[in-house]
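Annotators were shown the component list below and the corresponding predicted structure, then asked to write short factual statements about the assembly.
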Amino acid sequence: MRATRAVIHLDYLRKNISLVKEGTKRLLCMPVKADAYGHGVLPVARAALAAGADYLAVATVREGEELREGGVDAPVLLLSIPLPAEINALVGADLEVLAGDADYLDALESAAGTAGKRVPVHLKIDTGMGRIGCTPESAPDLAEKIARSRHMRLAGCATHLAVSDSLAAADIAYTKQQIALFTGAVGAIKARGIDPAIVHAANTGAVTFHEDSWFTMVRPGILLYGYPPEGKSALIDTAAIRPLMELKTNIVYIKFVRKGQSVSYGRIWTAAEDTHVGTLPLGYADGLSRLLSNNWSVLAGNRLCPLAGRICMDQCMIDLGAEPPARWDEVSVFGGGAPHAGILARRINTIPYEVTCGINKRVPRVYA
Ligand SMILES: *Cc1c(COP(=O)(O)O)cnc(C)c1O
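Structure shown to annotators:
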């Protein structure tokens, strides 16, 4: 195996899941879309289910099929809208869907009829995310359409929150308003004598800060991968949440560099003193953002060593100082003993999701 690898700590996943399960006492849906946020879908899905997750969620039909091909028989919820041409496949893979429009429901009804199945539908109500879903006013009619159909079953009601991870007063008010609209719509469905089944709204921010959003199931993603939102939670012990991903590599080359010599493309780094520079077999083509050039430090030989110069496609350099560790020594780029992907994300103005999803297929995942 190549030196550069992402070590995925499944024991931390089990811990994070039990913290959330014990904290919320609700059904737990674990989003494993985008290859489990870059952590590798099958090992994560299997560990999550063994640790007590009740549902998995994916974004594409293909992701759902991959779970089925991997032998996962737990409920899998498709979060995004597929093309009409993909509907037979999703029915074939026994996926559950989030749906909130009559066209999609009609297509599901007809595909499930042809297959001789009943497709479980979670009615998606748009309470202010503005992405997919029906208006709260139209929810009861659509719930009735599903409940009265021959080949669909109302398996749940759901909404998605836009700013639940923010503690700014205006954002808290917006989240409360979304929760109120959702509660009203679910109440109107019940008033028609229809069982709303599993009621779910809470992503990471809402699990962390908004107990009134938990209903009967929660769907936190990034929290379970180890990155709570900023701010103190009265609900979840976020200090005990651990990041799963550690990006590791080895120093493949070390050289002595004189004061004033430059390193890498563009010559944006020159040695301030005589030093040693190590080369790592890791670059932006592995998902290490080039924006981290001269702007991140890795853990090498028990010390944080700054990146030296531009990150190249497949390699980058680090300043090892006067007394370098040994050639071939291990390095943690983020996670493990080094600052985690959430801290790295802030450094380059993005979110941990983008960092872990960005570590791509060229980097083998190793499960610990
Ligand atoms: C991705 C996703 C989640 C999880 O979001 P996090 O911010 O990772 O907690 C929950 N619900 C839906 C609909 C999603 O698309």
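Statements collected:
1. Residues 31, 79, 160, 203-204, 219-223 surround pyridoxal-5'-phosphate (CB under 6 Å).
2. The two ends are 16 Å apart (CA to CA).
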